[in-house]
What does this fold into?
Amino acid sequence: MRIGQAGLAAGLVACGTETPPVEDRTAREPVAAPTSNYVTVEVVNGGTISGTVRYSGVVPAPRSFPVTDDAETCGPSQSIRSVVVGSRGGLADAVVSLVDIRRGEALAVPPPPVLDQRGCRFTPHVLLVPAGVPVRVLNNDPLTHNVHTAAFENRSVNRSQPAGLEVIELDFESAEKVKVKCDLHPWMSAWIVVTDHPYHAITDGAGAFELPNVPPGEYTLETWHESLGTIRQAVTILAGETLDLTVDLVAGD
Ligand SMILES: [Cu+2]
It folds into this structure.
């Protein structure tokens, strides 16, 4: 893979102390993973990383899965794209993060993260979840699905979820990327990206991302895609400025 980059900066930081904002429906503490060494500080005049992840290689053809059972809900077949490219080569569902940041703003507690099953697909395909915040897995299909996670730093789960069954809650205490599958429908997959700091973003359908309010300094920016892999690059953030980046993933590199 190759990295394209434009726009840089440098500067240094101001810090303080602060309490994470909270509207934790689960009343669980802490928000950050117990294993995390990330320190929450007040970020003054932080910088922003803004940009686009692009894929310029040959886009793999969709993989077609025949549906033998449950065709009434799932359709006669399911077509799955492993690489989703939008306008101007923008790559969707890549995760961009600062992997070595140790101090920064609090990891805000979002509304309860939801992984839905509808039309025999997981939605969204990639979900960012702060460590310590449970994921609510829904089944909005009139059939049985199966929630099977492949975790390494967290507890894996393998549970059947019949239609109408109550929500399954998945708990993650450590940061990692966890693949989720349904064993009953082999085309169904999703990724839960468990985070221990707020500097993560998922690219949208045009490949765009933004990481705001970064304490000025030097970091390693990681771009990950489930089938294209991971690349890293050094970035320098200046106080109050925006670093514009284009990250190019090239097949075969
Ligand atoms: Cu299923």
User: Anything to note?
Assistant: Residues 120, 145-146, 182, 184-185, 188 surround copper (II) ion (CB under 6 Å). The mean pLDDT is 87. The chain has one domain: 4-249. The chain has one helix and 21 strands.
